[in-house]
Amino acid sequence: MRGRAGGDAERLRASLKEARVRRFLFSGHADAKVPSGGGERSLGFTKPGGELETVPPQTLAELLGEHAVGHGGALELVFLNGCNSDSLGRAVHAAGVPHVVCWQTQCADGAARIFARTFFQASAQGCSYEQAFEEAKRGVLGTTRRAAAGGGPRVPMYELRARHTPPQQSFLHPSPIAAG
User: How does 7-28 read in b/e, with b if 16+ C-beta sit within 10 Å?
Assistant: First the structure.
């Protein structure tokens, strides 16, 4: 299942059965509205024809939980790198996956990429998932940009806060982007 892009829930189910997956990373829409789901939100999969497919969150949590280490599988980490994935992450954890990383808010795409890359680099270097999480936060917070187009000092690019909340460092110009 390594490095597959796109797909749908059935492809995920088949992939989890054919390989003993230890880590599962989903990067994409985690707040896609589930049709006739009463306002539920879940992962948005891309079907072969390009249409969006969603799966009810509880079904997805149970699917991933079936492959968790506590249920005889190998799955020890689910990383939901998408907006507002917290409730799904909690359901996945409740279904038996011991380590889940997710976003409580909307997240900036660039910050989400940096967070995931830094997390998995730290993990590959032997850090625990908890340590990798802290490294990933530092990676996002340590990303800078020039204050002015022609140069000038470097200022933080991101700040760990929800969108539509005021910047913590309001004296900086430009203000840091809300990472999530």
Answer: bbbeebeeebeeeebebbebeb
List the structure tokens of 151: 């140069």
Express each pLDDT in 55-94 by its tens digit.
889 989 999 999 999 999 999 999 999 999 999 999 999 9
Q: What confidence category does residue 5 fall into, taking pLDDT thresholds of 50, 70 and 90?
A: low
Place of tokens 């140069």: 151
Q: Which residue has the tokens 């390989």?
A: 19
Q: How many residues does the chain have?
A: 180
Pair of tokens at residue 21: 């997956």
Chain-centroid distance of CA 23 in Å reads 12
Can you say whether the dihedral through the CA atoms of 8, 11, 17, 23 is positive or negative?
negative
The encoded tokens of residue 157 equal 């690019």
Q: Using CB atoms within 10 Å of the CB of residue 113, give its burial: 0 to 12 exposed, 13 to 18 middle, 19+ buried.
A: middle
